[in-house]
Amino acid sequence: MLKGLIFDLDGVLTDSAAYHLQAWNDLAKSIGITLPPAANDALRGRSRMDSLDLILAYGRQQTHYTLAQKQALAASKNTHYQALIKQMTPADILPGIVPLLDAARAAGLQLAIASASKNAPTILTQLGLMDRFAGIVDPDSLQHGKPDPEIFIKAAETLHLAADEVMSFEDASAGVAAIKAAHQFAVGIGDATVLAAADVVVPTTAALNFAALQQAFTAQ
Ligand code: G6P
Ligand code: MG
To answer: What is the sign of the dihedral through the CA atoms of 50, 56, 62 and 67?
Structure first.
């Protein structure tokens, strides 16, 4: 029986994924790297340092920087990102999300956040959504990033729910892989080809419908 919903944040509740990408693109350019179109999905859901490593790999610059230099590059991206998200308000919640959260609450479901972002609490506060979530996984408590299942396993644990009692939402292929590795029901939001491993894929959050999702979950 469905008892809880687990949400990725960036690109699911709000379009902060676009800000992450913009800040990474600018950082990459500053060190002479042009990101390929595939970076749009590949960077989604990856921790800050994993993202930087991927960018350096795109530019074949993995060995060009010391750990301290990499930490400085990551910090510079984060400063830029924090400036971009400063202006976010509840108007930046993506279409379909508030009705979904309302329907879930009306059905007595528990909600949790599984975001790798250390900026997640700031964004949730700015969106006015902080009080909706009973559990928020602390990214500092994680050993492995997505596509490892750890974050989704921990999110279900914060709600005291089993893997087959939750439905998890993601916009990244690495995130969908993490959900499936955690043996949970996956809802992908985005390109059906990229997110083919999900149990259900919708093109945008506007197409999320609680009754239809509940039906798909029961029918699995
Ligand atoms: C999320 C985003 C990634 C981001 C990661 C770390 O998973 O999808 O794009 O790199 O969080 O975010 P942070 O705000 O801690 O740098
Ligand atoms: Mg995401």
So the answer is: negative
How many CA within 13 A on the CB side of residue 18? Answer: 7
What proportion of the chain, given as a percentage, has pLDDT over 70?
100
145-167: per-residue pLDDT in tens? 999 999 999 999 999 999 999 99
* Catalytic site includes residue 148: no
Rounded distance, CA 37 to CA 40, Å?
6
- The pLDDT tens digits of the residues spanning 3-38 come to 999 999 999 999 999 999 999 999 999 999 999 999
- pLDDT over threshold 90, residue 206: yes
Show the domains of the chain with their CATH numbers: 4-14+89-219 (3.40.50.1000), 16-85 (1.10.150.240)
When pLDDT is averaged across residues 54-60 and rounded to a whole number, the result is 96
Phi-psi map region of 32: left, alpha, beta (phi>0 left; psi -120 to 50 alpha) = left
Q: Whose CA is nearest to atom 11 of ligand 1?
A: 117
Amino acid (one-letter) located at 206: A
* Strand-pair partners of 26: none
Query: What 3-state DSSP class applies to 185?
Result: strand
Q: Whose CA is nearest to atom 8 of ligand 1?
A: 45
Pocket of ligand 1 (CB under 6 A): 10, 17, 20, 43-48, 51, 78, 115-119
Edge-to-edge strand ranges of the sheet holding 185-189: 135-136, 110-113, 4-7, 166-170, 185-189, 200-202
Q: What value does the mean pLDDT take over residues 76-86?
A: 96
Tokens representing 47 are 């921790």
